[in-house]
Predict the structure.
Amino acid sequence: MRWSTLFIPTLRDTPGDAEAVSHQLLVRAGYIRQLHAGHYSLLPLGLRSHTKVANIVRQEMDAIGAQEFVHPAMHPASLWQQSGRWETMGQEMFRLVDRKGADLALGMTHEEVFTLLSKELGSYKQLPQMWYQVQTKFRDEPRPKAGLLRVREFDMKDSYSFDIDDAGLDLSFQKHHDAYVRIFARLGLPAFPVVASSGAMGGGSSLEFMVPSPAGEDDVAMCPNCDYRANVERATSALPDVAPKDGPDELERFATPGIVTIAALAKFEGGAGAIHQIKTLVMVLDGTVTLVCLRGDHQLNLQKLQDATGAIDIRPAEEAETVAALGAKPGSLGAVNVSHLRVIADEALRGRYHMTTGANEDGWHWRGVSVDRDLHVAQWTDLREVTKGEPCINCGAKLDIAKCIEVGHIFKLGTKYSDALGASVLDADGVLKPLIMGCYGIGIGRNLAAVIESHHDEKGMVLPVTIAPYEAVITVVKVDDAESMRIAESLYDELRSEGIDVLLDDRDERPGVKFADAELVGIPFRITLGPKGLANGMAEFTPRETRQSADVAVGEVGRYTIELVHEGRRLGR
RNA sequence: CGGGUUGUGGCUCAGCUUGGUAGAGCGCUGCGUUCGGGACGCAGAGGUCGGGAGUUCAAAUCUCCCCAACCCGACCA
């Protein structure tokens, strides 16, 4: 294509409302424009890259034997009611009513739809099956942000596996895992898998693929020494044993006027250090007031609480609810001898004694608390959030916490959806068995953004050949020089005939403008044709990544470019 | 949904405190000069000042209501 005829609205200034680098560059380079919050138009360049990302995903899915579908984006409510997610998805699902008054939903994922179709499977002999689509999802995100990283309407590759047994699921899961590794390699993304919470998808284990980036929304605990990596929603660490504090063995109430924080109690005469305190949080789980206990210096991870309890709606109690439940305000709360409320406690409190906690009367605390003796713990679980510097659970090295972008997520679902929708097949013994399912997602636009987050410099995007909208650009320095244009056209034809996505920058602009634009939009290779070089039979070849120009003979620059493009296309293969 | 910020031409912003003819840079159009890293001169086009109501002789500016976007938190590919 000729640049002079394309719509590539590059911007010299960074748009004021863009914070993330990928967002700034996508807008500046003329890849996207916002329609409203969380909804973006893909412009020609953006669409080309987006399509290339999707096609890489398709190729790797096809390579593991998956089959492509396209399902409707709009679904009947009844389907979601069958799985129970009409209720559990809550506010995040876009819902509408048609002229007949029927409830409809815009699909935020397609477990139900694929599972419905899987009912046409009748025999174990037809398994395994792996089905996928690249389709638009709608999610009423509470807060769209960072350009393409978090939006309300986006294309996702979602795939689903159907197996007769767990061993089959393990294999399908592993195939997806390996396919994802290849996909991210071809995108040039430094992605790695971490154990994750499965959230609203339900089911068993799940792995997230993460790419470190300051624009990321997930915190991942990473061991610098071994390969331990986990989302903080799941991460644990090895905690050193805490020697019990000196103090009474029996419960002893003491006055703590005005002391309403852990920190204040730690400094208070007769108080206790944070690690000797029990922090008592009053939470409302699906409408039920519940006490959550942690060590004083530990933070609750809400996702862990949600995973441990299965609650859908979790919020801190209002002060009035707290007073009604315990008779005291936050700052003097404790679970000692509380039996009318469910008490959930973090593992780090197990067996602890000589502890200090609130006495459920404003201005009073207990010391001499023995967790086993004085707290009626209904559920022990891991609730605390791992923090930087804690010892790795595997090797003891100090953990780092890194911000990451979640670029893919693979789940073992089990039979949640096949049970709900009655999808089953006969096994070899003629017994009806529910399909064992897995589901696997990759957001296309988010991956594009993630690539930009990890491949850019001060001049703009530095896209890998695999997904750059154009692989090479021929920049004509002086378009009114007949010889320059003749050579450019000839080179352009040569590259096109070899299947290279090549752009001919034939705009009557100053060279600086053309160089800057080519760098901003991130085209991997630039061939510059100017009268001076051509007089010596030379073209100039500039890889975007290094920006180091080299002279190449005009007669050879086409071949040279083709070879480098081919090499670039092989990235990760 | 809670907290914060911002809405002025295609983009970046000034003007608002102290009400009085709507501005700059970039971009765009024309002409000329220039021509290998975002040129220069001259002449132009382009704005319901987010929307509505109110106060006032007079509102971008003051008041109220609404809307939208962005950022920080709770959610996810």
